[in-house]
Amino acid sequence: MFLTHLLLLLIATVSCINCVELTQPGSMVVTPGQPMPLICKVSGYSVTDTSYCTHWIRQPAGKTLEWIGCICGSGNTYYSDKLKSRFAVTRDTSRSTVTLGGQNMQTGDTAVYYCAREDHGETHPKKPCTKTPPVGKTSSIGLRK
Question: Looking at residue 15, what is its pLDDT?
Fold first, then answer.
């Protein structure tokens, strides 16, 4: 019997635009059905600054970007109707991190995951991201049997 694992290749990358950095960690393996935490470390802005929201977006191979959800400086969270039952976006203000918690992960969740900052805060919080986030804010997720 083959055990299927989700191989989370979280490429540790850093980008700096206007002294703002979002960093994601290395790799991990998650068994299908298990939770998956993805952590985005931010610097150059505060996760409590109401001028910004931090979003999570994913892109499965060969498909378009899919907005998962976000948390804004006020602490308000917004989610894709399709994914809100399986993902939660939280923050740790003392560590300046924003975490995407995935529940009951399946092979269909294989994708490149992005954390990205939205500059206009809560003006348009439910608008899905339609632009490719800047290079350096990605996490690749692959399937391994």
Answer: 36
- In angstroms, the CA 85 to CA 61 distance is 23
Q: What is the mean pLDDT of residues 1-14?
A: 26
- pLDDT tens digit string along 44-68? 899 999 999 999 999 998 999 999 9
Rg (CA), the chain: 15
Q: How many CA atoms lie within 13 A of 14 on its CB side?
A: 9
CB contact at 8 A, 118 and 51: no
What percent helix, strand, coil does the chain show, rounded to 5?
A: 5, 45, 50
DSSP secondary structure, 105-119, as one string: --GGG-SEEEEEEET
> Nearest-CA neighbor of 141 among 104, 110, 106, 101?
110
Where do runs of H (alpha helix) occur along the chain?
Answer: none
Task: Determine the 3-state secondary structure of 88 from DSSP.
Answer: strand
